[in-house]
Amino acid sequence: MSEPCLWERATVPILVAGSAVRTALGDTTATFDALVADRSGVGPLRHADADHHRVKAGYHLAGAGAGTAERRFLAGAALALCVTEALADAGVPAGARLPAVIGTGLRELCEVERWGRDGAVFAAERLHFGPALLAAVDRINGVLTVCNACSAGGYALALAQDMLELGDADAVVVGAADTMTCSMLAMIGRFTERPVDQLRPFDADSAGVLLGEGAAALVLVPDDTLARPGAVRVLGTGLSCDAFHETAPDAGGIGRAMTDAFARAGRTPRQVDLVLAHGTGTALNDPLEAAVLREVFGDTGAGPLVTAIKGGIGHTSGVAALHSVAVAAESMRRGLVPPVVGLREPLPDGKGLRLVRGAPVAARPDVAMVNAFGFGGVNAVTVLEAVR
Questions:
Q1: What is the Cα–Cα distance from 150 to 378, expressed in whole angstroms?
Q2: What is the mean pLDDT of residues 209-213?
Q3: I need a labelling partner for 169 at 20 to 30 A (CA). Which of 46, 106, 137, 250 fits?
Q4: Ordered domains of the chain (ranges, CATH)
Q5: Is 84 exposed, middle or buried (0-12, 13-18, 19+ CB in 10 A)?
């Protein structure tokens, strides 16, 4: 792992005061329970021509209908639902300065594709999540959308922490949303030699990635007297943008993001009990991520437990980081780490990692690390801590 840069420093911890997610498995409780049960939300592909895209399966939002009308601006609708629930959970007082930072990989690109097919009319500003959120929650003071590939949720988290540390907000909504698009389906369909039936992170026989739909929202506040047992702190998020390749990850860039995360969090690898890996089930990501994890935690004794959630909910693009943060937080609260859904035989590069497979592990992690890596080498690594 590379040495910290001179400007790296510990950031001020912040508290997750409220949260909500939606995945192919349901809400937060349903998603976590299904992951613990080693159950996948994969199903037949809807809303697109499976033969044309060479993709037969996907992880569609639970409860989302197959009708065209029900999918109009689905990402924004799911996001607004999560934000509303997270704010109700958080109890942020009226009058608080409350901006929102939203991460996404694709925004509402489905609407652009629909416009190209059938001429459906929409206002261009609806590609941005401001209108959807402000219509649902009138107390939000402005919405910033961060369109940063599959690490967008992590970047949004880092920006929100900066805003709170600088005193620019009393609380910040951090959200993310993405749904499937024909363009992304066409791309992943040409990266696989055989049909993918299920996303299998770190599996020796993994055929590749499948897309997932989802949304998530966290309400972040300064870490003060609101901290109570069972809560979770965000200690820091490390970032890197290595621009190594359009799609391939780079070990150096990932390592720098981890180094930055530990410096900002004021923690060391030896203190990490749990890793929520990026784990995409691809031939490029999984061996490389496993190698970096072995290097980072190689001299820490047994090392942390390692799990990944995309086998259960698919690759949810810009929501991936926040979905993993939510699962890490539930693991800390419940004392249970879910297995890597779909993992049957670990790939050789995973040797030496404490990959959780087949059944959950009873454990009470105090410190967790969440990985999220995106196209173009945009990497985000977040370190969380349980409030005991």
A1: 8
A2: 96
A3: 106
A4: 14-222 (3.40.47.10), 232-386 (3.40.47.10)
A5: middle
Q: CA dihedral defined by 78, 81, 84, 85, rounded to 10 degrees?
A: -110
Which pLDDT score is estimated for 7? 42
Catalytic residue among 53, 60, 315, 323: 315
- DSSP H or E segment with residue 386: strand 378-386
Cβ count within 10 A of residue 2 = 12
Is 315 one of the annotated active-site residues of the chain?
Answer: yes
Q: How many CB atoms lie within 10 A of CB 384?
A: 28
Q: How far is CA 183 from CA 125, 153, 155, 198, 259, in A?
A: 21, 21, 24, 20, 34
Structure tokens at 185: 């389906």
> Any residues with CB less than 8 A from the CB of 69 and at least 6 apart, and which?
none
3-state secondary structure of 16: strand
pLDDT at residue 17, as a whole number? 95
Write down the catalytic residue from 60, 150, 182, 323.
150
Catalytic residue among 47, 60, 278, 323: 278
* Separation between Cα atoms, residue 133 and residue 146, nearest integer Å: 15
Q: What is the pLDDT of residue 314?
A: 98
* Unique residue bearing structure tokens 């607004």: 80
